[in-house]
Design a protein that fits this description.
Length: 150
């Protein structure tokens, strides 16, 4: 077999690359998971669950820290910055950016307690029988809420 020098030989085949990329990292489950996460832009653990990093956007997290520590009268200004930064996102991050914006708006409307109450509500929902896609959606929202809580 062309390009195979040992067994098992592992290759990653991204879209549009018929030759594939050789996998040359470690052979433990965590090594494979890390590799796949890097190549596919996901954030899963070895059990297939989303990690606490899923959905987080570094450029928005910096603004969230500013939002969190700002006086109430300055938060609207920072919300505008969050909206501007979210508008620059692409791919799956667009959806995550919208969650950041919505959480910031809810905090302005309902107060800082919103993140705690919403996190508790999502935790209860995650304990119920829900579809895997809903579980992922709720886990991502919980991760973003935690960025506003810290």
């Amino acid at each position: 077999m062309k390009g195979v020098s040992g067994f098992p030989t592992l290759k990653f085949f991204p879209k549009g690359n018929k030759a594939g990329e050789e996998y040359e990292s470690g052979r433990e489950l965590d090594d494979f998971v890390k590799f796949i996460n890097e190549k596919s832009g996901t954030s899963r653990d070895s059990k297939g669950q989303l990690t606490s990093e899923a959905g987080l956007v570094a450029s928005l997290d910096a603004l969230v820290k500013e939002f969190h520590s700002a006086a109430d009268d300055k938060r609207k200004e920072i919300l505008s910055k969050i909206e501007e930064e979210a508008a620059k996102l692409s791919g799956p991050a667009v959806k995550h950016g919208k969650i950041y914006v919505n959480v910031a708006k809810k905090i302005l409307q309902k107060g800082s307690d919103y993140t705690k109450k919403e996190t508790e509500r999502l935790h209860r929902l995650l304990g119920q029988s829900i579809s895997p896609s809903k579980a992922d959606e709720f886990a991502i929202k919980k991760n973003i809420l935690s960025a506003f809580s810290s």
